[in-house]
Amino acid sequence: MRLTVNDVTIGYTDEGRGVPLLFVHGFPLSRGAWQKQIDALRSSYRVIAPDLRGFGESEARTGPVTMAQYTDDLHALLQQLKSGPVVLIGHSMGGYVSFAFLRQYPKMVHGLVLVGTKAAKDTPEAAAGRRATAEKVQANGIEVVIEAMAPKMLAADNHDRAMAEQVRGLMTPSKPAGVIGALLGMAERPDVTAELACISVPTLVITGADDTLIPSRESEKLAQSIPGSQLNIVPHAGHLVAFEQADKFNHVLNEWLDRAAFPVLVSA
Ligand code: MLT
Fold first, then answer.
1. Which atom of ligand 1 lies nearest, measured to the CA of 152?
2. Per-residue pLDDT averaged across 37-42, rounded?
3. Distance of CA 52 to the CA centre of its chain
4. What CA–CA distance (Å, rounded) separates 39 from 42?
5. How many Å lie between the centroid of ligand 1 and the Cα of residue 200?
6. Mean pLDDT value across residues 235-263
């Protein structure tokens, strides 16, 4: 499905009924990264999964895309879909967006699931690296990013070649302007460490034990700082834990959602 929000056409999935779950994918991925959650949860929940601007089926615009801009897109989408408050589930860059969403639209968030993400901003070196990568994408296209990121999405000892190909397929629809915009936006994102202690919604922090892009230590720090949060570290999983170990991930998420028993405030 597609809708125009703000100035771009956004591709999205909206299936099922009940408590709305908003899935926000990471970089340089697309909503297909959540397909195994969509399939497992749509019989019990309303599952909303957009492609962020510049990724998947969504249009790109030139220029940096701040986490606040992605947040405004998501909020406008939810308004059009009349979702009411959601359980916000963000992976990696989607987690950075989730922190911004929580700050900008706290009344729209009933619960939070932080997947393979972190609170710290980029070091100056990391930010400079992103800007250099953006220039390479400008000159030569997104292949340089896919080559760098795809091998790091799964655990190093996962030799499932079909799965590795599927992961690349989640990245290939990304537009150069979308990838550049995200790189520049991530480079200037704020540090949210000081905000963690103020998060008051039920929070699940979940990550892959073998994540080398954002090591599990970052999730431990999140869980230590967010009051009452639950931490799960999934074994035999890299950065894309929800895709690589979908059954284990879905089991943890389902149990947490059951226990939290979120209400539906506005039905579709
Ligand atoms: C992601 O998966 O979204 C990225 O690894 C996040 C990042 O580059 O910081």
1. 5
2. 98
3. 9
4. 6
5. 25
6. 97
| Stretch (H or E) spanning 189 | none
d(CA 260, CA 192): 25
Backbone torsions φ then ψ of 234, nearest 5 degrees: -90, 125
Query: 133 in ligand 1 pocket by Cβ < 6 Å?
Result: no
Of 239, 219, 237, nearest to 229 by C-alpha is 219
Q: Is 95 in the pocket of ligand 1 (CB under 6 A)?
A: no
> Where residue 153 falls among pLDDT bands split at 50, 70, 90?
very high
Report the separation in Å between the CA atom of 264 and the middle of ligand 1, taken as the mean of its atom positions: 31
Task: From 117, 213, 243, give the residue whose CB has the most ligand 1 atoms within 8 Å, as the site to mutate.
Answer: 213
Instruction: Quote the pLDDT of residue 267.
Output: 46
C-alpha to C-alpha distance for 172 and 99, rounded to whole angstroms? 26
